[in-house]
Amino acid sequence: MKNFKLKSYCKINLFLKVIKRLNNGYHKIMSLITFCNLYDEITISKINSKRNKVSFIGPFKKGINQKHNTVTKVFDLLRKEKLLVNQTFKVIVKKNIPHGSGLGGGSANAASLLTSLNSRLNLKLNKHKLKTLATQIGFDVPISLQKNNVFLTGKQNAILKINKKFRLNLLIVYPKIICSTKAIYKKNKDFTLQKKVPNFNKLKENKFIYFLKKEKNDLEKTVTTIYPKVGKIIDCIKSQNGCYFSRITGSGSAFIGIFSKKKYAIRAKKIVSLKYPECWSTVSKTI
């Protein structure tokens, strides 16, 4: 196997509904998820060594545990399943997706690596087995296995693929605050009754935007209560020309603005950068 490179794409929650808290401490949620062209870059090569060599570089390498992370978990699981025998690898992950932001960078790394190794090493893992392994790594990893937009229906482990491309212009802002997913869910008091949603594959663009504008992320109130600055920047983005809506993604602290045109997103980025220079931001588009 020669050296090869992967791209693992950023996850965006367009809305998120917390239905209820489960007895095991987890939560039942509904969420519409898309992916955008912000991605981490992974380089993999085979090496002659007793152990794998995994390293992180790039603007968001800080704070990642070098020995225990989603990449090392993939290798540990494959060895446990006796699928990797006497094979070791050097993996370099360039972190372009902010770590601890709610954008699913770590989950995307694991999903991309798992899928690629299965294909290139002919591990013969079917979709069910891939999903089972992915679930053991983290909640979002099975979601990142998908190449499509997906809808979490609220039913146990139910991920509905959406074939339609959304073509959304995004401004992504990360205020450099690491939100603990566990802590945010634990403190959350906003719950939404499960309800029927439209068929996203058949929804026309104007009606789709109208639907999204009426939705929300139930975790946002908790995040903005703990970190008021996040709420202020979201309000700033909402007030910009061409902005349909702005809200946090996942459990934060990153948040998005959806714009009618790319030029409006670029203009809003300049305004946010001037007003809040401590924040990281980028203009992106759904894939």
Description:
- The chain is α+β, with helices and mostly antiparallel strands and 287 residues long.
- The chain is 32% helix and 29% strand.
- The chain is built from nine helices and ten strands.
- The strands form two sheets. Strands 1, 2, 3, 4, 5 and 6 form a six-stranded mixed beta sheet that branches. A four-stranded antiparallel beta sheet has the order 8-9-7-10, with helices on both faces.
- Helix 1 packs parallel to helix 2, helix 1 packs across helix 3 and helix 7 crosses helix 8.
- The longest helix has 16 residues.
- Helicity, as a percent range: 25-40%
Uncertain runs are: none
Number of helices: 9
Taken from the alpha-carbon principal axes, the silhouette is: globular
Oligomer: single chain
- Please state roughly what percent of the residues sit in beta strands, choosing from under 5%, 5-15%, 15-25%, 25-35%, 35-45% or over 45%: 25-35%
Structural class: alpha+beta
Termini distance?
29 Å
Using only CA atoms, what is the Rg? Answer: 19 Å
Number of strands: 10
Biggest sheet details: 6 strands, mixed
Mean pLDDT: 94
Q: H/E order of the elements?
A: EEEHEHHHEEEHHHHEEHE
What's the topology here?
Layout: E1 4-21, E2 27-47, E3 53-57, H1 70-80, E4 88-94, H2 105-120, H3 127-137, H4 141-144, E5 149-152, E6 159-162, E7 169-174, H5 181-187, H6 205-214, H7 220-226, H8 228-238, E8 243-248, E9 255-259, H9 262-275, E10 280-285
Parallel strand pairs: 3-4
Antiparallel strand pairs: 1-2, 2-4, 2-5, 5-6, 7-9, 7-10, 8-9
Helix pairs in contact: 1-2, 1-3, 7-8
Summed up:
This protein is an alpha+beta fold and 287 residues long.
